[in-house]
Amino acid sequence: MNLQELIKRKRDKGSFSTHEIYDLVQYVQDRETPDYQISALLMAIYLNGMTAQETSDLTLAMAEGGQMIDLRNIKGIKVDKHSTGGVGDKTTLIVAPWVASLGIPIAKFSGRGLGHTGGTLDKLSVFTGFNCTLSADTFIQNVQQYGIAISGQTAEIVPADRRMYALRDLTATVDSIPLIASSIMSKKIASGAEKIVLDVKVGSGASIHHMEDALVLSQQMVSIGHNLGRETIAVVTDMNTPLGAYIGNALEIYEAIEILKGMGDERLRTLSLEIAHNMVQLAKDSWSSDKIQRALMDQIQNGAALQKLKEMVKAQQGDSGIFMDTESLLRAEHKLTLKARTDGTLHGIDARTVGVSSMIAGAGRKKKEDTIDLTAGVTLHKSPGSKVRTGDPLATIQGQNLEKVKEGLLVLEDAFTLSSNDYTPIPLIHHIIRH
After folding, report:
1. Bridge pairing between strands 416-419 and 148-152
2. In whole angstroms, what is the distance from residue 324 CA to residue 326 CA?
């Protein structure tokens, strides 16, 4: 069946067989297939959705359409972790070495940031020389030798998704739940993951703004994982408030190191522990919850978790000297502080607004070609629920370009909501979906 007939089928609310899904992926990967046909297909899927079977088939077809990383020769259960993205989300930098320090192999592909959300590879670029583009062979060797590797996805892995995502961005079909689910899970399957933990963020600073959508997406991804033989857990978490007190690449490396030292922001520590706990639980199913908790806390207290991060940075040619002078991560050419204009209780810090202000200051990209300022970002001095008096510092914004920092400060002013009313906290962890 040709692509035009398949587009017509989905346009008319029909469904595809497994064989037809594989044909679709081949059409997408064929450079001779025009963008307008793929765009028409994406819009038909966006408008009419996909069945659970179609979504599982699309996930596996996309994964098998490119290079599959084979980790079977590496001892132990390989557990992967994915976040749908948010402001100040540096949990990968924390939980990956933390879990790996317990002898659980971590083989993770990560991406760059775009817009108001940050990317793990940009943060790791703070370590001068860090190799974010490992070959498949080196990637596997590093996991074998050091128990951990974090790298950018190569062009050979899930090539269909690479093309589809670019067109989804251009055709306003990014927020199709079946396409999001298959995009995320195909990369997890292709990267060799045996067990998967998903951090699905919902709120103003996330790509998913409504709880109903977050739950549907979580359930679909968990179902895909189980259908394809990969036990999967989804943790639905809040992204109305930035995660942690530091937003921006160097600043987030600083905070990740602080958490691995047993210090740092309470919400970030709580979420990191929850994600790490679920990852260990999948890899060590005979361990009790108490044993997992004790083991994780021991790795913080004895320094093993932080040491594993250092080991990974060195293995990927990054400058480990930063660990000797973490205060250097807080420095920038220009810093401006936002102060409270009235008394009150801090009821909210809008994550999206903070993310946009940080991006404007230089920490993020409006388009993929933009150059980022690794020193740029925002430091929060208060958290929701804090009592604030006039003149108290609320946040500091920084970067190398003073005009950009000033522009970011104007946006940052709208992030803070003060009130005389009683404060009711928003839960950090909304749901955990296992089946």
Report:
1. unpaired
2. 6
Q: What is the DSSP string of 188-200?
A: HHHTT-SEEEEEE
Q: Is 341 a catalytic residue?
A: no
- What is the rounded CA–CA span in Å between residue 239 and residue 206? 6
Q: How far is CA 212 from CA 217, 331, 357, in A?
A: 9, 41, 28
Is 82 labeled as catalytic in the residue annotation? yes
- Split at pLDDT 50, 70, 90, the class of 113 is low
Q: For residue 110, what are the β-bridge partners?
A: 152
Choice among 10, 78, 81, 82 that is catalytic: 82
Q: In the structure, what pLDDT confidence band is assigned to residue 424 with cuts at 50, 70 and 90?
A: very high
pTM for the model: 0.92
| Catalytic residue selected from 116, 187, 188, 382 | 187
- Alpha carbon distance 367, 175 (integer Å): 18
Give CA–CA dist 194/190, Å, rounded. Answer: 10
Q: Is 135 a catalytic residue?
A: no
Q: List strands edge to edge, sheet with 231-238.
A: 79-83, 195-202, 231-238, 429-433
Reduce the secondary structure of 140-176 to three states and give it as a string.
HHHHHHHCEEEEECCCCCCHHHHHHHHHHHHCCCCCC
Half-sphere exposure at residue 12, Cβ-oriented, CA atoms within 13 angstroms: 8
Q: Is residue 370's pLDDT more than 80?
A: no
Whether 183 is catalytic:
yes
pLDDT over 90 (residue 112): no
Active site residue 187: yes
